[in-house]
Amino acid sequence: MKSQPVSIRPYSRKPEENGPSENEGLIAFPPGGSPSDAQAILDSLEEGIVAIGLDKKILYMNRAAREILKTRDENPISSDCRKVVNSSECQARCVLAKTVETGEPIRNMEISLVDAFGRRRVLRLNTALLKDSSGKVFGGVEIFHDISQIVALKEELKGRYSFGRIIGRSEKMQEIFDLLPVIAQSKSTVLIEGESGTGKELVAHALHENSSRREGPFVKLNCAALSEGVLESELFGHVRGAFTGAVQSRPGRFELASGGTLFLDEIGEISSSMQVKLLRVLQEEEFERVGGTKTVKVDVRVIAATNRDLKQAMETGEFRKDLYYRLRVIPITLPPLRERQEDLPLLIQSFIDRYNAELGKNIQGLTSEAMKVLLNYHYPGNIRELQNIIEHAALLCNESRIDLRHLPGDLLPAQAQSTFLESAMLEANPVKYLEEELIKMAMAEYGGNVSEVARRLSMGRSTLWRRLKEMKLA
């Protein structure tokens, strides 16, 4: 026999019923059943259920909702929902009001609240509209469960597997995490070595933030991006008239970083003459501005970074031995991402959380197929490349999980790309589906620049705008 769906409709006590009823307001029951049947069904659920009218008065709360919210009111029916729920979203914008306005349910939103006993709780929330038999909306329902323990565990793991904004559970990263707090308290010069994209600047920033110099400035300079003359002026500053265009005196990065930390990236790219000048500052903590004669003293901790093999450069005479050993008082070598595969799930989730916040999305994770591709990829660009991949996928994904079709095409093996085309053939309009996916990919690649996307797809701007509106992307 086919089961009957549960109906939900507004309910009021009969005039002859005396005294308050905790069932007053909203009753859910199978056709032919009674309110007590519905109460038993709803009270058996672990999820909290709160029904709220358009006037923001509580219509109904089941047993789990009362326990999760720890309401002191024995009969919260007809109470103001903001007093009972008291969540972070109540202070910003009512989620039910948004559901009523848009007609769209909210799925898996995380909210925080303080219960009647002053304890902070984190809930995962879903919403839906409540309609009477004629289809008229008379309120909304919030369905939630308490994930406070899960969040607390994640925070504990985050503390165990992170230092600053650096994340990792691999043995190599754990060894680095053990050293960083000790290194942070020292003033000694640090040389961070590792391939491009391994997070050298993050390590430098974490050392600064966890040092006694945290209140001082953190100044950074990419040495490879500047010519020798410009680099000298950037590092040491210049006096007025030192060179053509020097219309006024200007402090350099060493002066700006005094009392704090100076991060010199791509240190292996500086010339031999600049190596001599830098060595003097590191040894004597003093220098003269370009074109000046006055000696400037500074108190700066220097953290340098390179993706070159400086030891080999030293042996070939490209890098001074004395500067190499002066910089390498404390060496830190960051492993490439391919050597810390066990860190991938943590890093992926971290980037998903970041882009959820930036893009206003609610991506929960990856499908098993997409995760398999990312776990088997070799990442020549290291963490920076992984971050770009997740950003690309997050822009394209409008679902709860990132799938193969959301990943950059060059990551997918030929078989996966074939599977993508086959999946397109399952759509009602395969050509339209492929066109929309191409538009999404191009929008992500060109940062939403409509002119560039139109040019890349050989499509008129007006046509592209029309497609974007149809796709609700404009």
From TrEMBL:
Any single GO BP term: regulation of DNA-templated transcription
Location of the Sigma-54 factor interaction domain: 166-395
InterPro entries: AAA+_ATPase, AAA_lid_NorR, Homeodomain-like_sf, HTH_Fis, P-loop_NTPase, PAS, PAS-assoc_C, PAS-like_dom_sf
Region annotated Disordered, chain positions: 1-32
Superkingdom assignment: Bacteria
Any Pfam family the entry gives: Sigma54_activat
SUPFAM superfamilies named among the record's database cross-references: Homeodomain-like, P-loop containing nucleoside triphosphate hydrolases, PYP-like sensor domain (PAS domain)
GO molecular function, one term: ATP binding
PROSITE patterns: PAC (PS50113), SIGMA54_INTERACT_1 (PS00675), SIGMA54_INTERACT_2 (PS00676), SIGMA54_INTERACT_3 (PS00688), SIGMA54_INTERACT_4 (PS50045)
The keyword DNA-binding is annotated on this UniProt entry: yes
Domain PAC per the UniProt entry, residue ranges: 107-159
Keywords, sorted A to Z: ATP-binding, DNA-binding, Nucleotide-binding, Transcription, Transcription regulation
Record's protein name: PAS domain-containing protein
Native organism taxonomy: Bacteria, Pseudomonadati, Nitrospirota, Nitrospiria, Nitrospirales
